[in-house]
Design brief:
Strand content: 15-25%
Structural class: alpha/beta
CATH architecture of the largest domain: 3-Layer(aba) Sandwich
CATH topology of the largest domain: Rossmann fold
Bound molecules: flavin-adenine dinucleotide, iron/sulfur cluster
Number of helices: 12
Distance between the termini: 71 Å
Shape: flat
Number of strands: 21
Length: 397
């Protein structure tokens, strides 16, 4: 069994371990350190103690699987009405590289109804094989039936890597599957690569409020599961001359589910379509007041773009959450991103720094946003936005 304990005779009460523990799982009891119940056994405190006063015993891993029995890279190809969602192509782009590095096959799993066109497209975008499960009852996403089918397929097909979108569906499906097949899951990865030393999947994502990047591995369980946000990975150019295999796996389709989808309603979230926009005009606290978002709306309208926002403005109630860009909002990757009165906190940058061109307007020349900006305008957004609107209106007719 794994375990950690303080060796009281050696502990001199220096508190170094308390500072080192990222989970607040050590407190001082007088001059002795005490490990609390919320300890995750991460082991970070052990080298922090200069007095060898922390005893950490790593036990054998329970439920480890024979990882040599797993091979192949799978992606979950989301679709709506038989048309693959853009995230599916992005996952194929990432999966293709991983499969090539592992010298293995890339398979897209698609679940739905009337999927022939989707299969063709998924092959054009890089899949070697498409496993399609088609049934009228699967036309609309359903947590229970989709996860049940996926689990059956994983148990039979034993992929070593499974990628899903960090989308509404992927975020719901991935943890259900991971817990049923007893494997790990790394959410919101920003980089995925194969460790050349041992072939394991290195899953990198922001951690601790975006202040550092953590690389996570899943050494003893399979598949290695990761979710990736929309626009973080790049799709390949489609090649409709590519040949691939379309298979129809034999699965039992659950007929009785406790969740019944009665109607699919298009939400405002979809209409804002930040994730798809080529131009985004975002406003921050530097706008000074909620009513000044009308300038942001106007510039976005002139440019045919979408409206984004920093979390500070969302928290202040100036604009709704579905406009928020950043670590706890949406990840976007437009061609042009205007950051108006936004300081450029690391959590905001996490959601927009992959934009092709970043235009920053800020009255503070030292604002961090200028470090990532392609074009920086130092000045009052209230004065600059009307000028931009006027100029773009004139230029675009
Ligand atoms: C766990 C966690 C998750 C987070 N997730 C997100 C997230 O998803 N998205 C996000 O945005 N933030 C997020 N944040 C918050 C983030 O840390 C910042 O607090 C936030 O981004 C600041 O928003 P802002 O730039 O609008 O406001 P401020 O930091 O207050 O910056 C306002 C800027 O406007 C400039 N300014 C002022 N007046 C003018 C003017 N008249 N004209 C031009 N410029 C002007 C100022 O110089 C300043 O740079 C998160 C924080 C945490 C801890
Ligand atoms: S093992 Fe990790 S979580 Fe536990 S006390 Fe040490 S640093 Fe904190
Ligand atoms: S770092 Fe070591 S010696 Fe210092 S308080 Fe923690 S356990 Fe005790």
């Amino acid at each position: 069994m794994s375990g950690i304990r303080i060796i009281e005779e050696s502990c001199i009460g220096c508190r170094l371990c308390v500072k080192a523990c990222p989970f607040g799982a050590i407190r001082m009891d007088g001059r002795k350190a005490v490990i609390l119940d919320n300890c995750t056994l991460c082991g970070i405190c052990v080298p922090a103690c200069k007095f060898n006063a922390i005893d950490y015993e790593k036990g054998p891993v329970s439920n480890a699987v024979d990882i040599t029995k797993y091979s192949g890279v799978w992606i979950f190809a989301e679709q709506k009405n038989g048309v693959p969602e853009p995230i599916s192509y992005e996952l194929l782009g990432a999966g293709r590289k991983l499969a090539d590095d592992r010298k293995t096959r890339l398979t897209a799993v698609v679940i739905g109804d009337k999927l022939s066109d989707a299969c063709e497209k998924l092959i054009a975008y890089g899949a070697d094989e498409v496993m399609a499960v088609e049934d009228g009852s699967l036309a609309v996403y359903n947590d229970e039936s989709y996860s049940d089918i996926f689990v059956q397929m994983i148990r039979k097909g034993r992929p070593e890597i499974l990628l899903m979108g960090a989308t509404t569906y992927g975020r719901s499906l991935a943890p259900r599957i991971a817990s049923r097949i007893n494997t790990g899951l790394t959410a919101d990865c920003t980089r995925l690569e194969i460790d050349p030393a041992d072939g394991k999947l290195l899953q990198t994502r922001p951690a601790f409020g975006g202040n550092l990047m953590a690389t996570i591995i899943c050494p003893n369980h399979r598949p290695q599961m990761a979710t990736v946000r929309h626009k973080v990975m790049k799709p390949l150019e489609p090649d409709y001359s590519r040949k691939g295999l379309v298979t129809r796996p034999e699965v039992s389709i659950p007929r009785e589910t406790s969740v019944k989808v009665r109607e699919v309603v298009k939400t405002i979230f979809e209409m804002v379509s930040l994730a798809e926009a080529d131009v985004i005009v975002s406003g921050g606290r530097g706008l000074g007041a909620p009513e000044n978002f009308k300038l942001i709306n106007e510039l976005a309208e002139v440019l045919g773009g979408a409206v984004g926002a920093s979390r500070a403005t969302v928290d202040a109630g100036w604009i709704e959450y579905n406009h928020q860009v950043g670590q706890t909002g949406q990840t976007v990757g437009p061609h042009v991103y205007f950051a108006c009165g936004i300081s450029g906190a690391v959590q905001h940058l996490a959601g927009m720094s992959s934009s092709d061109i970043i235009v920053a307007i800020n009255k503070n020349p030292d604002a961090p946003i200028f470090k990532v900006a392609t074009f920086g305008i130092v000045g009052d957004a209230m004065e600059i936005l009307p000028l931009l609107i006027k100029e773009f209106k004139a230029a675009l007719g």
